[in-house]
Amino acid sequence: MLPPDTVFPYAGPRNNLSPMIIMKIPPASWLPVLAWIVVTGPLLGQSLPTPAGAQIVWASDAFATNYRADGITTFEEAARQIRFELGTFSPGFEPSTATPEQWVSNWIVLQGTDYDMMDQQFIQTATLTTNFAPFAAGGQAYIWGYTSKDVKPDSEWIILGAPAWKWPSVNAMEPSVFTVGQAKPADAIFGSVNPSNGGYQMQLQFVAIPEPSSAVLLLGASLGIVMRRRRGVA
Q1: DSSP annotation string for 86-152
Q2: Tens digits of per-residue pLDDT, 111-153?
């Protein structure tokens, strides 16, 4: 059966004739809507969200035991906020042979988050949007936890760099996962992690102030002697 909009060019026999389909014209009330679609369509397409960068999930284990620098007090018992950061160091910088002051001055943060006292962990998802230095694909990533970044005796830190924590390509389709559980004791640059006895996951370490060198002490003593002699002569 032919559709109702089918017409024939003449009223004669309908055998062997090619029908013409008449297009329905939308009512005039539709014209403003059509005009709006034509004008704003490209703009709407540009505003649609597009994937940008690689996702990195970084976390410690939930409900794990973590100690402050005294090795007795847990994070929760101390009730002092502890900050964790995902990042890396300046290109060419070797943290394993550096001082606390040098760590601070060469540290570059990608993302930070606070330790959750209720869940006994930190967990966050970062987005890496560039592979320019210092976030080159395959470069080493680190996690730094601290009570304060100030280089003073009562500050407590932990700095970890597990071999599995490598910056992904920004075009990576699957998210990367950096967990403290992947770190071995030797991966702790400062503080300690996952000891062989399994007693805890992380332990912070006090930031020690370097003792004055013997040369500095000798120089100070020499200056003192000189000053006393000058006062005696006067």
Answers
A1: EEEE-TT--GGG--HHHHHHHEEEEEEEE-BTTTTB-EEEEEE---STTS-TT-B-EEEEES--S-S
A2: 999 999 999 999 999 999 999 999 999 999 999 999 999 999 9
